[in-house]
Amino acid sequence: xAPRVDVHAHLMPTGLFAExxxxxxxxxxxxxxxxxxxxAARNGATGRGAPLNLRDADVHxxxxxxxxxxxxxLGPWIDMIAAPVDAPTQAALCRVVNRHLATTVAGRADAxxxxxxxxxxxxxxxxxxxxxxxxxxxGGMLAANTAEGTLARSDLDALWGAAERAGAPLVLHPGNxxxxxxxxxxxLVNLVGNPFETTLAVGSLLGAEVPxxxxxxxxxxxxxxxxxxxxxARIDAGFRRWPTLRDRAGAPPxxxxxxxxxxxxxxxxxxxxxxxxxxxxxxxxxxxxxxFAMSDHRPFAAPxxxxxxxxxxxxxxxANAIDLFGIPVPETPRSA
Length: 336
Prior knowledge:
Elements: E1 5-10, E2 24-29, E3 34-39, E4 45-46, H1 57-66, E5 71-75, H2 78-81, H3 87-105, E6 111-116, H4 122-134, E7 139-143, H5 157-166, E8 170-173, H6 188-191, H7 193-207, H8 210-213, E9 219-221, H9 228-241, E10 260-263, H10 269-279, E11 284-285, H11 298-301, H12 310-325
Parallel strand pairs: 1-5, 5-6, 6-7, 7-8, 8-9, 9-10, 10-11
Antiparallel strand pairs: 2-3, 3-4
C-alpha cells in the first residue's frame, strides 16, 4: 500500500526569522507564542503571527502522525510571503524560506518541501524555483492572488515555462498579509476569500491560455479548486458567448477541468465526492492545510468517506501525489 501523502501543509521554520532581508523584521509575541513580520514599507505594519506548530517541524509532525499521514509536503505560509511590497525583497525572503525548508526536511522520509515563490516578478520566480529544485524542492507554491494584477500577467510566462521544463508541479494557494477591509469581518477573508481567489486564479490562467500554451505544466488547486469545479459551466459559457472572449484560440474552459489537479480540503464528504465524480480520482490528492484551525484531515482519518474502491482510495491518499511530485516511497511509513 502506498504511503499516505498530505499535499497541502505549511511550515515557516523558526530559524528563518533571524535571517530576514532588509525591510522586514521579526516581531515576537511571547504571550501568544507567535512570531510575525513587521514591514517597514507598509508603514511598520505587522501581519499575523506564526505559532509554534507552524514553525517547528517536530510539533507539526506529531499532529500529522496522529492523523495517519506518512509523508507531508511542506509549503510556505503565503500570508508571510505576501508581506514584501517590492520584488527584490520578496525574492530574497523566498530564498531564505527555501533554505530553511530544505534544511528542515533534509534526511527525513516523512517530509518534503514546496518552494516559496515570489509573485511580484515572474522572472525572479523562475530563478527562485530553479534554485529551490537544486536544494531538493518537490515543486513550488505560488500565491493565487498576486499583489500585482492576476496570474494572467505575461511576465509569469517565465515561471510557467521553467516549471514545465523542470517537471516541477506548482501549487496555487491564496494568502493576504492583511485582509481587505470588506473581508475582514466574520473571517470572510478565509471562508469566502480563499476559494474566490483560487477561482479568480483559474479564470486568469484560462484567459491567458496558460493550459493551452504550457500543456505539460502541472498546477494543483487547493481547497478543492475553490468555486471552479462548481462554476466551470458558467465560465465555459462566458468564454463562448462574451464578445471579447469567444474568439480565443484556446480550448473551452470545461476541457481544462482535468488539466488541473485538486486537493480534498472541502470539509464534507458530499463536495469531495462531487469533485471526484467530476474530474476523476486520478486528479485528486489528499490534503489537510495542517497546522491551521481550518484544516481538514477527513480522508486520512476516514478513507471510506471518499466513497471510492480500494484502488481509487489508494490513488487519492498517496499514489497520485507520489507520481506527480516524484516522492520517494519510505520503506516503513512513519505513522504506521
